[in-house]
Amino acid sequence: MNTHRTVSRGLITVLVALVALAVLGWATARSSMSHGALLGMLPFAAVLAIAALGQTLVVMQGGIDLSIAGTISLTVVIITHEAYGNDAKVLPAAALALAAAIAAGLLNGLLVGRLGLNAIVATLGTNALLYAAVLGVSGGTPRQTTDLMARVAGGTTLGVPNAVYFAVVATAVTTVLVKKTVTGRRFEAVGASGLAAWAAGLKVDRFRGGAYVGAGLLYWLAGFLLAGIVNKPTAYEGDSYVLASVAAVVLGGTSLLGGRGSLVASALAGLFLTQLQQYVLALGETYAVQTLVQAAALAIGVALYTINWRRLRSPQRTRALPASA
């Protein structure tokens, strides 16, 4: 039996887009491709790549996670406020933030996977609870990161930002777990067809709920890195990752309807979107334009991988099917 698998269309699309963006940057905005600009961009690209991995797990189950903003923000404020000025407190603060992220994932998993609530409504409610905790911990005021966090998350090794290494390892581990293990293949089967998976005896609610827990772990890692990359992070660092993470997922070829997805493509799409944002900034455009560009990228991804254009092009045929049956 031939076990060879072709490279996903989403991965090819993202790679082509990255090359095209690099060429465009060299031709029209050389400053966006300078060594300093790339070193400044890569840590934030790594954070978005990790956040996109978490969102991909949820989208593969046909859901969406709006609590990503609150989870990342709470992780940032717990680490920066609880460990403020004391490197010895970084590990306990990170552990406390991890517990909060897992709790948020479990709550989302219970609401969506077990109780069957709408993912948007459930995760939006969880996000509100998380931001209540954010304000309770921080009072809305930022604090400077510790020296240890700045070295671990914001430093470089062999000329490469440390955050990139975290992103590569996270992508590799998540991909292996989803693509190369029995549990991972069952996870994909549930996302492709919950009814068929249930008929085959799989615990559909556990897999769907587990996606939110796995996503919470990855959001925690993204927030951990942000707490060291940004010298004085605000209490709302996670806000910009809601739209960006979903855009990265759909650009990477994962349908918003659920099913199989390419985690590597989602991570690379995070790199593409971050560099695209830097390119737009180098052109002198405003933050509003940057947001519109992200929204356009999301729309393109939905058009490529979610909408069934063949069905739209043949309306007479799809309407005739019930009558003929």
UniProtKB/TrEMBL annotation:
> Which membrane topology describes this protein?
Multi-pass membrane protein
Q: Where in or outside the cell?
A: Cell membrane
The record's keywords, sorted A to Z, are: Cell inner membrane, Cell membrane, Membrane, Transmembrane, Transmembrane helix, Transport
Q: What Pfam families does the record point to?
A: BPD_transp_2
Q: Which residues cross the membrane?
A: 35-54, 66-84, 90-112, 119-138, 158-178, 211-229, 241-258, 263-281, 287-307
Coarse class of the primary localization is: membrane
The UniProt record lists the keyword Transmembrane: yes
Q: Does the keyword Transmembrane helix apply?
A: yes
Q: What is this protein called?
A: Autoinducer 2 import system permease protein LsrD
**Source organism (scientific name):** Paractinoplanes globisporus
